[in-house]
Amino acid sequence: MCIVGRWKRNRPATARKPETVVGLHSFRDRKEPGDVSLDEIPAVMLSWQTGGIRMLYRVKVEWNEEDGGIATADLGQIECGSCQSAAEVGLKLADAKPILAKLQQVVVTQQLRRYCEAARLCPACKARKNLKDHRIRRLDTILGRIEVDAPRFDGCSHCGDKRVISPLSRLLPKRTTPELHHLQAKLATELPYGRVAGLLRELLPETGGLNSMTCLNLTLAVGQEIEKELCDEVEHPKVRPETAEHLTVGIDGAFVKAKRSAGGQRRQFEILTGRVERQRGRGEVFGIVRDLDRKAKQKVQAVLRRCGRGPKTDVTVLSDGEDGLRGVVGWFGKCQHRLDWFHISRRLERIRKDLLYLPATDDFNRRLASHSKNLDSVKWTLWNHGIEWADGSMKMFRACLALRAWDEPKESLKRFQAVESRLDELRSYLYSNQNSVRGYAEAFRWQERVSTAHVESTVNQLIN
Questions:
Q1: Would residue 255 count as lying in a domain?
Q2: Cα(109)–Cα(429) distance, rounded to whole angstroms?
Q3: DSSP character for 40?
Q4: From CA 326, how far away is CA 337, in angstroms rounded?
Q5: How confident is the model at residue 350 (pLDDT cuts 50, 70, 90)?
Q6: Does residue 450 belong to any structural domain of this protein?
Q7: Domain end call among 277, 309, 339
Q8: What pTM did the predictor assign?
Q9: DSSP string, 280-306
């Protein structure tokens, strides 16, 4: 890109106003003072007139025709003055949107004209087909709604083909560019549909389909396409030429309220969300409803195959220990389960909060510090050495609680029993997943996943 500019001082009022042209042209041979050349690619021309305080900017675009000529088109003009405050600096969004819309009109018109001319040739005999008629079509793009010419051509008389074709209908059957669809669907997965429509209307030039119902229907259509791809993968598994060496799969569940029905048979349903990570390349996320989708397990395994899972791929599954979550991934090949440290840490924090409600005594702070130290010992041994060492720390913690509760009245024993029940629940939880509670410190040093905290963002992305 090349920008060349010359600034001239204002002349007296009787003289003609100076005009300076800034064009994206090649001015390499010009040696006038004040010229700045950055490149030699012709593209957009800007011009302004200076007189007093106000400035008028004219925006033009030029392009090279096929015959070697240069065509130009006016995009608009912007009038502004010298800035007196921070709010007056730069172009305003309202001024830039119509200029971008006109530029999009020029670019798309030239692209589609050349595309239709190329489609007019018969693919068999290369003969030029006869023009049947012209129609005007509205096309929604990310830079505004434009009107384009949509010619239709008769069949080839030389080949005997009688089919009437419309190149524009084949290229854009939905009359919307994929970029606009992608932006709407991407924002609709993170924001309410009404807010997405309002945000796009605020930022983009005037175009069609920017309402809540359109965003809703588009998002559902994208979901149906993804569902169709997964069903095709389940029915016809594809063998990947290159398999991944290691995959990390984090799985977590979330409950969503069901829509009220006449019978009121179902109040909520469980959605399993997960994130697949690999060492190289981008991973994938998935969400399934186990009890409503009969092919839920096959679809998850199809996602893993798409990420490069093979017979020799090492798969690490992170979950809260439920057998159903682990079984969704499948146990064929090299697969190991690691109990989610996030759920373990959350149980430890619940015990720590219960310690605050123990009976108040004169040395309460000293006793609380002693109990917290014993709880930290349980957490440290569990992180570094596993459940066998942590069991000894839990017994020590329980003995200290019993010693403190010995002299307390019976009315205060319930609070100690609440802490002990939490501790018993933690011990039972760990021993029910004994084979999966190990290697946290070593995995963390090797920068491997030890918890499903990153899956919580997937829950917000897919559900909330």
A1: yes
A2: 66
A3: -
A4: 8
A5: very high
A6: no
A7: 339
A8: 0.65
A9: SS--EEEEE-TTT-TTHHHHHHHHHHH
